[in-house]
Amino acid sequence: MKTPNLLQLFLSVFSMLVVFSCQNESRDDASENTVSDVTTEIAEDNAAPLLSLPYIAVFDEASEKLGAEKNPDFDASLLTIEALTQALITNYPEITITANNVSNDTLYLQVADAQYLTQQMGSSGAQMYLLEATYAYTELPNINAVNFSFEEGDHAMPGTYTRTYFEQLHTLHE
């Protein structure tokens, strides 16, 4: 695994989140400091790279579409619910996610405090998170859908997401 590639990947995703998130004038300084501190720690601590996800959300500025790109740095031996959950938490420390159970082909997840996801990431940031989480968990054998349970907000809705949902979303915007 190449650490510089992971750092570049993280900085690219982080930059997209910053660019596409909506402006919220009532933001408190504590949340800004948290993101800044996390970014600084990651930049300074190359010995502990971020856990990678199997897919990366990419935004094509020309077509203004969000898509998924296979992550060449992903270690397929880490393909477990626990490892993917930890990778999501590591890559998105503001969003605490818990895997509850699997029923049929659906994994049920709980986001205890979805304020950051639904109110602070903007619509594009929230869609990127849901896409990366959905693609990550549906990489697991026998998981075809991911049900997110959280309080609905301005930028994200709870519900069941599949890869097909995101593929159809792109088709609708053409």
From TrEMBL:
Keywords: Signal
Organism domain of life: Bacteria
Signal sequence extent: 1-21
Protein's name in the database: Uncharacterized protein
UniProt source species: Parapedobacter koreensis
Lineage: Bacteria, Pseudomonadati, Bacteroidota, Sphingobacteriia, Sphingobacteriales
